[in-house]
């Protein structure tokens, strides 16, 4: 009996010394504690155990060095690299969220999950700009095939106009909106706020619905084009309103209504401007027929023709 007590005392003392040497080795249950003690006993009694401890120590040092690594500055490329670190499934899920807005399903909270990306907005804006320029030129080509008197020449400047318009809208409007909400947050304590990159991400994904709409505008039916444009505008603006409402609802009714109205109005002006500029036929340059040859007698006055006859 005394031998058993002495053996238990030695095991307890040995375990205490091991725990004192490794204070981070915490257990959550009795079974885990038994397994950890057996593992420690095996490690201590074998030569390979010391190597494992050295590997763990090296790993701890590496993790500490990574934590101590300074964060990159915002003007460096490494700072923005994380905003492009998304996979295809995440981008498709966010596009789906922008196409199917739901009142109780916030885009920022349920789709972005505090991880905004610039990859989707960048390529959505680039695709929309090129599609606008290409379809705008192709519309004139189709018009020339219907009416040969229409003179068509490639208008490459539309690519530049579309790119500047789309990118300025996708960056400057979110910047102004974010700055205004940040200013209002100082006057309304309970008012929330999205980050600037979250606001840019919301606007970028909201423009995706216009890409298939612009392709459908190739149908040479005016009322059908306006119908597609109205549906796309309603869908995109609804997504913006549902996303911004949880932020502005704590403000006064007048400010909330005015802010959301301005957001919808700017969205409508963008869609209307794209429709009228890129898909409205330019002034037609008809082919002027060549002047017909006339006889000298027709050009001469009557008195001259009388003298010639006499």
Overall description:
With about 300 residues, the chain is mostly helical. The chain folds into two domains: about 1-20 and about 30-70, no CATH class; about 85-280, no CATH class. About 70% of the residues lie in helices and about 0% in strands. The protein is built from 14 helices and no strands. The protein has helices at about 1-20, 30-45, 45-70, 75-80, 90-100, 105-110, 120-145, 155-185, 195-205, 210-215, 220-250, 255-280, 295-300, 300-310. Helix 10 runs antiparallel to helix 11. The N and C termini lie far apart (about 160 Å). Residues about 25-55 and about 285-310 have low confidence and may be disordered.
Briefly note the structural class of the backbone: mainly alpha
Q: How large is the share of residues in beta strands?
A: under 5%
Average pLDDT, to the nearest integer?
Answer: 75
Helix content: over 70%
Outline the biggest β-sheet: none
H and E order: HHHHHHHHHHHHHH
- Dominant shape: elongated
List segments where confidence is low: pLDDT < 50 over at least 5 consecutive residues: 25-56, 284-310
Assembly state of the chains shown: single chain
Report the total helices.
14
How many domains? 2
Count of DSSP E strands?
A: 0
The N- and C-terminal alpha carbons lie at a distance of 162 Å
Using the CA coordinates, give the radius of gyration: 36 Å
């Amino acid at each position: 009996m005394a031998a058993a007590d002495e053996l238990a005392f030695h095991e307890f003392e040995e375990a205490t010394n091991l725990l004192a040497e490794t204070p981070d080795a915490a257990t959550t249950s009795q079974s885990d504690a038994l397994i950890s003690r057996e593992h420690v006993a095996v490690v201590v009694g074998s030569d390979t155990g010391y190597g494992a401890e050295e590997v763990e120590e090296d790993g701890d040092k590496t993790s500490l060095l990574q934590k101590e690594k300074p964060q990159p500055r915002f003007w460096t490329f490494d700072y923005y690299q994380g905003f492009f670190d998304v996979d295809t499934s995440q981008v498709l899920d966010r596009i789906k969220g922008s196409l199917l807005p739901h009142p109780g399903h916030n885009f920022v909270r349920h789709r972005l999950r505090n991880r905004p990306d610039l990859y989707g907005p960048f390529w959505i804006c680039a695709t929309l700009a090129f599609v606008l320029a290409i379809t705008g030129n192709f519309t004139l080509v189709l018009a020339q095939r219907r009416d040969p008197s229409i003179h068509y020449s490639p208008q490459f400047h539309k690519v530049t106009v579309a790119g500047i318009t789309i990118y300025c809208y996708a960056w400057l409007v979110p910047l102004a909106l974010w700055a205004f909400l940040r200013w209002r947050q100082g006057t309304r304590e309970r008012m929330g706020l999205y980050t600037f990159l979250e606001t840019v991400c919301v606007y970028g994904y909201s423009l995706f619905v216009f890409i298939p709409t612009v392709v459908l505008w190739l149908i040479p039916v005016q009322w059908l084009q306006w119908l597609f444009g109205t549906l796309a505008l309603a869908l995109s603006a609804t997504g913006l309103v549902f996303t911004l409402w949880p932020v502005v609802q704590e403000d006064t009714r007048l400010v909330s209504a005015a802010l959301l109205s301005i957001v919808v109005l700017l969205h409508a002006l963008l869609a209307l401007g794209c429709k009228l500029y890129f898909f409205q036929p330019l002034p037609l340059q008809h082919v002027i027929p060549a002047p017909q040859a006339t006889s000298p007698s027709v050009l001469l006055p009557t008195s001259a023709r009388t003298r010639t006859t006499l």
